[in-house]
Every structure is written in structure tokens, then in C-alpha cells.
Amino acid sequence: MLSFITRCFNTTSQRIPRQGSQQSYSTNEVKSNEKKYFKLISWNIDGLDKLQETLRERTSSVINVIKQEEPDAIFFQEVIPKSLDLLKTHLDDYDFYTGNHKNYFVSIFTRRETLKVKKHQIFSYPETIMSRNLLIVHALYNNSIEIDLMTSHLESGETFVNERIPQLKFCFEKMINAPKNRIVLFGGDLNIHNNELQQIGDIPDNINDLWMVMSKNEKWAYTWDTQSNTNLNFSRDCFLPRYRFDRIYVRSAKATSRFHFKPISFKLQGLEMIPSIHRFCSDHWAIQVEFEL
Asked: Exposure check for the chain: N or C terminus, fewer CB within 10 A?
């Protein structure tokens, strides 16, 4: 396995909980408040859009989707400091963790009501040209289910396939080697093509691609789709590419776990154009998945 540089933080980039919001529950409170479903959204929110004057309205629309859907966890990619300021201000029911604090970076938001975070880690990819890394949050869901949340934005573009493939392999190894009693969810803008996946021997055993598990419906396949998303302003007279760059993988806990964690829903979000600016929230659609407990 590649020797990756590890940096581990416990509280540095965590949003400080508001007074009175500490996560301590009595047994009765946990039983009465316990949710029956776990919801996750992963979204490249395109903080690097050339039309920076649209950043506030696009990010505000992302926030509206989050507030409407109320996911337990959110994987963000291409966050920039300005968009992070908006996210952390308006998503105040969440704690947040970041892979960096400058240029652009990944972030994980966790709903304070349902997820108690123990620690988070950042793994820097040694050969990255684009300052990419892996962010992992170790958490306890509803005071009972141990879960690892992992997001990354792998190296972009055909030119950097030799950097991207080892990065994906490393992420899969992290999933495989996580303690067997923990559920592991990994997702983000992986920039991966299926032929690249085959170069590492395809998806490892015991890891599932949630789009493939949930029916391989082409309607939900293409998360970067210039045929329907016009943010990048491709000429309508030329070939319009679309790819399944964004993916979410799951590794279940060992079979002896008493918890049921079954994927029951997979769909895309952010499909509506923002009328005031005639743009979508991002050039990527978001993935939203839901699990039955």
C-alpha cells in the first residue's frame, strides 16, 4: 500500500456546538427521537465557477435543498472559504469538518441531533498535483450505530489518471481496513471512469456502489451532464459529454451486527434552475441516498 501522509485532528475544524446543544440523551429520549432512516447527500458545489458573482445565490440554493431534505450527513466538494461561510452560518444544526481552509477543499457536515463525532482524520495524497486529500469522520449515529463517513475529490481530468487511480485504491483500502463493526460510507466527486476502476481490479468484495445496487437506472446515472446542465455553456452544436463522476460506496458492518442498514433510495438533487440567475446550483448534480435502519 502506498505510504500516505496522515494528519489527524480532533476539534480544529469542527463547528463549536451552540450552548445547550450537547449530545447527551437519556434512554427514553433516544428511543423517542430515534429516526428510522439515515440520509446522506454528496455534492460538488462548484466553488470554482468562473461566474463568482453567482456564488451566493447558488450556495443559498444548495442550502435550501439541504434544509428541505434534512440529511444526517453531507459530503461537499469544491468548497471555498466564501461558500463555507454561507454553509456554516445557515446550516447551524450541523457541525462541520474540512480537508483544508484555503483555495478549495472538501467538507463533511454532520447533523448534531443524530451524529456524535468522535474524531476526524485527513489523509494527504503524496502525488497529488491539485492538493487533493481524503477526509474521514468517525461518528456514532443515534448513540448506537458506529459509522465512518469518508469523502474525497480525486484528481481531475484525463491527464491525471495516473494520480487518480492510486487515490481511489487508497480510499478502498481504508474502507476495507476499517473495524468490522462499523458501517463505512465513502463518496464524492471521484472523476472516475469504469475502465480506470478495472485497472485496480474493480470494486473490492464487500463494498457496493449504491447506484448499481439501487437498479442502475440511467435517469440517476450522470452526475456531470452537459446535456441537461448548462452551467458550463457547452455549444449545443457539438458533442455534449456526461459522466458518472460522483459516486457513493458502502461497506456494511459485520453480519453479526444487530442493526439493519439497508439502502432504499437513490436519486439526484439540484436539478432545478435558479430563475434569478438562469443557472443551476452547480455543474454537478447532488447524489442523495437513504438507508432503512
From this structure: N
